[in-house]
Design brief:
The protein has 1 helix and 8 strands; from the N terminus they run ββββαββββ. By secondary structure, it is mainly beta.
């Protein structure tokens, strides 16, 4: 199986707590921990996907090339489509069958 079209520019951000200015912690993001080209596959079937669509969310699988920088991405990070400006929660990361890519399941339209 080949790479397919890696035609979307994406950036991955790591959660990074910071000060809220009043002595507490505030959730934030360490931007651009990894940027690369990705191919998107929109999930359309299955009960979970249909429930997500009814709730106004979109589940996708983003395929990216595997490298040392991409290896750091974990659940809880966010992925941003830099052209469209859409942010996605990273739900799962699995290596492709040929181990040359990661297939990252992401969801938009939910709290990040």
């Amino acid at each position: 199986m080949g790479a397919g079209k890696l035609d979307r520019r994406v950036s991955f951000d790591e959660p990074s707590p910071g000060s809220d200015g009043q002595g507490g912690q505030e959730d934030g993001w360490a931007a651009d921990r990894h940027s690369c080209w990705a191919g998107f596959r929109y999930l359309r079937g299955g009960e979970t996907v249909i429930q997500a669509r009814l709730a106004g969310t979109q589940v996708i699988v983003a395929k990216i090339r595997k490298n040392a920088s991409a290896k750091a991405i974990t659940n809880g990070w966010r992925m941003r489509d830099t052209r469209e400006g859409v942010a996605y929660n990273v739900r799962s990361i699995i290596p492709s069958d040929d181990r040359a890519f990661y297939e990252i399941t992401c969801e938009s339209g939910v709290a990040i």
